[in-house]
TrEMBL record:
Name of the protein in its database record: Leucine--tRNA ligase
Binding residues for ATP: 585
Short sequence motif 'HIGH' region: positions: 42-52
Motif ('KMSKS' region): 582-586
Keyword Cell membrane included in the entry's annotation: no
Domain Leucyl-tRNA synthetase editing per the UniProt entry, residue ranges: 221-408
Domain annotation Methionyl/Leucyl tRNA synthetase: ranges: 37-182
Main localisation: cytoplasm
Length: 822
């Protein structure tokens, strides 16, 4: 029955079978422990790349392994299907975004199926489908009614040629990524979600998430950016109004030599009103306003500023300090004004050097005396205070407390906590997104679309013209409506939602993907959530993961879910590289998964990817590596056939070589189980299976028969161990084996027989005529004849029996061998 291993044939066959039989369909089952494993759903760009293949292969091993361990496994997939590329394709090629998207989804689904992934396809979620976005709108309304949605004028990146708002990522060097014209800042009324209300909980709960990589947690902490400092006011000469500053280093207040405002600060126009350089100042202000925050604050970027002509008074020592404006102070953070203390702050230091502003030393280093003349950078650490009136001599930490106390007594300042996190701007002036369910009425203002009128559908009578207004504004049927409150003529909101809104709750929808009435049923979500294992790229470390955490917390507060965090364990996979660089279209070093699958089969592609590197590390693509994986699978195929063809003998006594092979088998079972259980040591798991296969070959080379029971055990176990990694070949060989379970994927995971692991050897004392001459170690199960033969050939024994006649040999099992000679 020696067939050749032809992956293309068997893979097609099993994929069809799994699909036709809904092999991986899951239902809630309160008698079984659940396990929810999830890979980040893809954007339907049209084709899978190797990064996807890696992501899904990792998830698939976990899902199949957990299923074999007896868990009720939920392993779904879907598509993050709204977004700009579909709309750009519409502008460029005239295809409707829906058509473009659905045909891409179709292609990617086919590619995913060709990888043999164990998805429950019945739970597929597609965010651009009405049956999904209607619930995204419902969730928007829940947020709205909780007071977590508001509309505010915001400064946005605006391209006047393309006539649209651009995301920060779409601005390259201050230019529009598409038409290359300069991007301007424009004030537009935009919709926001109040994520800042949750800043503290989003931060605090990170301390109770042992299943997340430290790196991701610290990125989120920095993004939220909580800092505790002081807010206090400077008097302005000749003005009633004061300037409030925010500082985390109030201990440096005696070293302040100037103050700096963001050019957007509302007091600026009054400060420069009488300045003869007013015109120049205004040019400067406009220029800074058009710089992005990233440009303004990046390290090494030139700090630019101008003197306003006005002065302020330091309330702690009455000193007169000039008021400047500069690009490095952001209007959106703190109070938009800082007290500058060049000795202690590197930005202030550089600025003071550049514009010849005075520098005072008021923080001294404990260890090594600082002198301004010797310094070429700020001293940013804590120290002790000098030249600071009654606070002189205090440590920075002491001074921060005592100075706040004094300020509070004087009534000029107070402790203040600040966050870097901003509210989430979700408005997009785009067509291919979830419509914001709001109606703008000239009398009533913004009114929520009543729940019974959801979904607000995307119209099809729109025009996609580059440089035009948002396409939704070209659809009269969409635009014109009645106000739900007063019944008067009103206009529908034409902004759509940021696609990150869609992806902030898709993992909940998988739990109840066909619910028409609500986004999800609470009971079902509570059965499945939280996601036990989430797997995806590090590029989502902040936005997607933070937004999803925010959504779950809001829904928890609403009593709609029981969990406070969406993802218990997070794995961030490394990149796929080729020749040391990232695999990417622009570099031209892309290896297409489809070609690899066509040539070698999905099992080889999966095995290579899982074997080549631990999942968190970057993986270097190697054609030899792929060949090697293919060869290994051919070896697996051949050895299984060989074993199945071997002669059986019925009784279950194993010869010492079978005992040894069985020990290797159970060592491998122990190793693979340990490597997969809560870990992702796929590469070492696979290499131990490779060793097992080698030993199976060694046995087959020197034996033509095998105990029937053991034959079945070893082939069966090998296939079970390999099944999560290479599901097709193992299924095909499983059928040849004819095991009780109809599919290897329904088999239970193998358990270690610890008795097989113990090294079953005993020491025998070897006597000649009743005197112990040496000891010999033999396997417990060694036959008497074999023991006798071995004992006689030992050199330590030979010298006592040489030239003599052996009368008899007495073997006392596990104890002694006595050779009687004459
Ligand atoms: C004086 C000072 C002296 C400062 C010193 C630092 C060191 P975090 O920790 O990130 O909150 N700052 C305040 N508001 C700002 C704004 N809108 N734009 C740019 N910088 C701003 O940083 C707080 C510190 O950043 C504040 O403390 C302030 O500079 C600056 F030796 O005040 B500090
Ligand atoms: Zn109205």
């Amino acid at each position: 029955m020696s067939d050749k291993y032809v992956p293309q044939e068997i893979e097609k066959k099993w994929q069809k079978y799994w699909l036709d039989t809904n092999a991986f369909e899951t239902k809630e089952d309160s008698n079984k422990e659940k396990y929810y494993v999830l890979e980040m759903f893809p954007y339907p760009s049209g084709n899978l790349h190797m990064g996807h293949v890696r992501n899904y292969s990792i998830g698939d091993v976990v899902a199949r392994f957990k299923k074999m361990q007896g868990f009720n496994v939920l392993h779904p997939i879907g598509y993050d299907a709204f977004g700009m590329p579909a709309e750009n394709a519409a502008i460029k090629n005239g295809v409707a975004p829906a058509q473009w998207t659905y045909s891409n989804i179709e292609n990617m689904t086919r590619q995913q199926r060709e990888l043999g992934l164990s998805y429950d396809w019945n739970r597929e979620v597609v965010t651009c489908r009405e049956d999904y976005y209607k619930h995204t709108q419902k969730l928007f309304e829940i947020f709205y009614n909780k007071g977590l949605v508001y509309k505010k004028e915001a400064k946005v990146n605006w391209c006047d040629t393309c006539h649209t708002v651009l995301a920060n990522e779409q601005v390259e060097d201050g230019k529009c990524w598409r038409c290359k014209n300069s991007v301007i800042k424009k004030n537009l009324a935009q919709w926001f979600l109040k994520i800042t209300d949750y800043a503290d909980r989003l931060l605090e709960d990170l301390n109770h998430m042992p299943g997340w990589p430290e790196r991701v947690k610290s990125m989120q902490k920095n993004w939220i950016g909580k800092s505790t400092g002081v807010e206090f006011a400077f008097d302005v000469e000749g003005m009633e109004e004061k300037i409030s500053v925010y500082t985390t280093r109030v201990d440096t207040v005696f070293g302040v030599t100037y103050i700096v405002l963001a050019p957007e600060h509302p007091i600026v126009s009054a400060l420069i009103a009488n300045n003869p350089n007013k015109e120049e100042l205004n040019v400067f202000i406009d220029k800074v306003k058009n710089q992005s925050d990233i440009e303004r604050t990046a390290e090494g970027v030139e700090k630019l500023g101008m003197f306003t002509g006005s002065y302020a008074t330091n309330p702690m020592n009455g000193e007169r300090v000039p008021i400047w404006i500069a690009n490095y102070v952001l209007y959106e953070y703190g109070t938009g004004a800082v007290m500058a203390m060049p000795e202690g702050d590197q930005r202030d230091w550089e600025f003071a050097k550049k514009y010849n502003l005075p520098i005072k030393l008021t923080i001294q280093n404990q260890e090594k005396n600082l002198a301004l003349d010797d310094m070429d950078a700020a001293y940013v650490e804590d120290g002790y205070l000098v030249d600071s009136e009654e606070f002189t001599g205090q440590s920075s930490a002491e001074a921060r407390v005592s100075i706040i106390n004094k300020m509070e007594k004087m009534g000029i300042g107070k402790e203040k906590v600040n966050y870097r996190l901003r509210d989430w701007l979700i408005s997009r002036q785009r067509y291919w997104g979830c419509p914001i369910p709001i109606i703008n009425c000239p009398t009533c203002g913004s009114v929520l679309v009543p729940e019974k009128d959801l979904p607000v559908r995307l119209p099809e009578d729109v025009e996609f013209v580059s440089g035009a207004v948002s396409p939704l504004q070209t659809s009269e049927s969409f635009l014109q409506c009645k106000c739900p409150k007063c019944g008067g003529a009103a206009l529908r909101e034409t902004d759509t939602m940021d696609t990150f809104v869609d992806s902030s709750w898709y993992f909940l929808r998988y739990c109840d993907a066909h619910n028409e009435k609500q986004p999800f049923d609470k009971e079902k979500v509570n059965y499945w959530m939280s996601v036990d294992q989430y797997i995806g790229g590090i590029e989502h470390a902040i936005l997607h993961l933070l937004y999803s955490r925010f959504f779950v917390k809001v829904l928890y507060d609403e009593g709609l879910v029981n969990c406070i965090e969406p993802f218990t364990n997070l794995l961030c996979q490394g990149m796929v590289l080729k020749d040391g660089g990232k695999m990417s279209k622009s570099v031209g070093n892309v290896v297409s998964p489809e070609e690899i699958v066509a040539k070698y089969g999905a099992d080889t592609a999966r095995l290579f990817i899982l074997f080549a590197a631990p999942p968190e590390r970057d993986l270097n693509w190697s054609d030899q590596g792929v060949e090697g994986s293919y060869r290994f699978l051919k070896r697996v195929w051949a050895i299984v056939e060989k074993y199945l063809d071997m002669d059986n003998y019925q009784e279950n006594t194993l010869c010492s070589d079978q005992i040894k092979l069985r020990r290797r088998l159970h060592k491998t079972i122990a190793k693979v189980t340990e490597d997969l259980d809560g870990k992702f040591n796929f590469n070492t798991a696979i290499s131990s299976i490779m060793e097992l296969v080698n030993e199976m070959y060694s046995y087959a080379e020197s034996h033509s028969s095998i105990a029937e029971g053991f034959k079945k055990e070893i082939v069966r176990s090998l296939l079970i161990l390999l099944a999560p990694f290479v599901p097709h070949i193992t299924e095909e060989l499983w059928q040849k084996l004819g095991a009780e379970e109809s599919s290897v994927h329904d088999a239970e995971w193998v358990v270690v027989d610890s008795s097989a692991l113990t090294v079953d050897e005993v020491e025998l004392a070897i006597q000649v005529n009743g005197r112990v001459r040496t000891v010999m170690s033999v396997p417990i199960a060694m036959e008497k004849e074999e023991i006798e033969y071995k004992a006689k050939t030992l050199s330590a024994i030979q010298k006592f029996i040489e030239g003599k006649t052996i009368v008899k040999v007495i073997v006392v099992p596990k104890k002694i061998v006595n050779i009687v000679v004459k």
